[in-house]
Amino acid sequence: MDHTLIVAGIGPGGRDYILPKALEAIEKAHYLVGGRRALHDYAKEGQETYPVTGKLSLLSDWLTEKLALGDVVVMVSGDPGFYSLLPWLKKKFPEHPVKVIPGISSVQAAFCLISEPWQGARWLSFHGRVPETKDTAYEKGRKLAFLTDYEHNPAYIAGYLIKQGWPKNTRAAACEHISYENQQVEESTLEKLASLEGFGESVMVVIG
User: Domain Tetrapyrrole methylase, which positions (predicted)?
Assistant: First the structure.
């Protein structure tokens, strides 16, 4: 029988935000994959673990070896359905069944932090990519949410949107380290966020 890849969403990261079903799978895992912080927070003694880095070829080799022996749980931040390793895993290991356990997306959590509903919002990513111009074009009443990185941080994105015609006084917020003790939320306007320092790996919300 082919062993299963279990992809478990751990939410923004804090233990209060992880679903019990995901936590159960993680605790029962013999082979466990995740980011270094996730492994620090959730791995238990006796588990064989592998930290996710940028070297996916090495991760692929490790997964191939362990899937020959048993099921593997892969922890991903947020929800597996939104810019996670899930598409890569499905493409790389088509012969193995995949079980997906949802998690609370950091985008959902960011909207909650600013007390704003997210229905109708367009979820995009500047994390290692740049969205198509049509997806970020200004429309009155439009809501956008972005994952950011250190190059395309909220200051970069705010300037990018202003150049696209978004009003400088558009409401915007940047949320960093969501659910952790060092969580930060900066809620202001595009003009002011264009000068915001840091917030590399964060969530930015824009409300037109």
Answer: 4-194
User: Domain boundaries in the chain?
Assistant: 5-101, 106-207
Per-residue pLDDT tens digits for 172-188: 999 999 999 999 999 99
* Architecture of the 106-207 domain: 2-Layer Sandwich (3.30)
Report the C-alpha gap between 15 and 141 in whole angstroms.
Answer: 34
Q: In what order do the strands lie in the sheet with 72-76?
A: 48-51, 31-34, 72-76, 5-9, 98-101
Is the separation of the CB atoms in 34 and 42 below 8 Å? yes
Among 74, 92, 89, smallest CA distance to 9 is for 74
DSSP letters of 6-70? EEEE-BTS-GGGS-HHHHHHHHH-SEEEE-HHHHHHH--TT-EEEE--S-HHHHHHHHHHHHTTS
Write the pLDDT tens digit of every residue in 82-137: 999 999 999 999 999 999 999 999 999 999 999 999 999 999 999 988 999 999 99
Report the candidate in 188, 194, 178 with the shortest Cα–Cα distance to residue 107: 178
Tens of pLDDT, residue by residue over 22-37, are: 999 999 999 999 999 9
- The CATH superfamily holding the domain 5-101 is Tetrapyrrole methylase, N-terminal domain (3.40.1010.10)
- Alpha carbon 168 to its chain centroid, in Å, reads 27
Can you give the C-alpha Rg of the chain in angstroms?
18
